[in-house]
Known about the structure:
The protein is of the alpha+beta class. It has helices spanning 113-124, 130-144, 158-164, 169-182, and strands at residues 2-13, 17-21, 31-41, 46-50, 57-63, 67-79, 82-85, 146-147, 166-167, 187-194, 202-210, 213-217, 228-234, 243-246, 249-260, 276-279. Helix 3 packs across helix 4. It is globular, with a radius of gyration of 19 Å.
Amino acid sequence: MKFNVFTQMEYVVWAPGTLILSIHALRTPNQTVISEEFSIEPYIKFEELQSAEGENRLIRFEVQEQCTIKVTYKALVDNSIELTNYGQQDITLVSQLPVSVLPYLNPSRYCQSDKLSTHAHNMFGHITNPFDQVVALTNWIHYNVQYLSGFSNAETSAFNTFTERAGVCRDFAHLGIALCRGLTIPARYFTGYAYQLNPPDFHACFEAYIGGKWILFDATKLVPLNGLIKIAAGRDAADNAIANIFGNINFTTMLVSCELAEDNFEPIYYSEGEYEGLSYL
């Protein structure tokens, strides 16, 4: 399906500094950026950077004087998703995982899988199918963690969310990742534009590596799984920040939207007992 995505952000610059933004739609075999525009007002020279693994597109620019700047990005993107049946899927041995996937087994700043491994095995270790395991833990998060705006902050980790049982999409994703890694299922953080998200904003969920593919899961269940436009993937939110600010620069306002650019959209959600997993890669 094709989507029009848009974001506009404003910053007040008090002293020279640098911004690194991650707001561009990612180009993948299953996600095509048909057209896009990026601008900064007043004009500032910028450069586009690609991560080593190609999991995000960054824009970096320096601001030399005090001013207010407005950043605008819009694009037409086709997210040709892929559905695969995992009904007979076995757990992939660590010895068989690609080297690029191995880092997503390890604890990270916000996903302390080492602290949650015992809980993960006690709660979901009896399930033999890895896709079933991730569906089960995703549903557990959805029904046991309250979606509560403003409850968490930039220091909230998966362990905090597990114990406090409240958070936003970022926290739901971190907890899903940590529980997956605790079960020896590689998992990574996903940020994107989200169709039908209310109020409109960037959205976070996670991908688990099952059967040789990265499969998308969203414990918030706020948007259809095929209504996302991928921006970036990483170990956790520390890798996937929408904006990294270096210097005395203050964020002030933001607008985000993701709208259908064609008809006949059929939303996809996972249900227990069904084994079709959705991949953006």
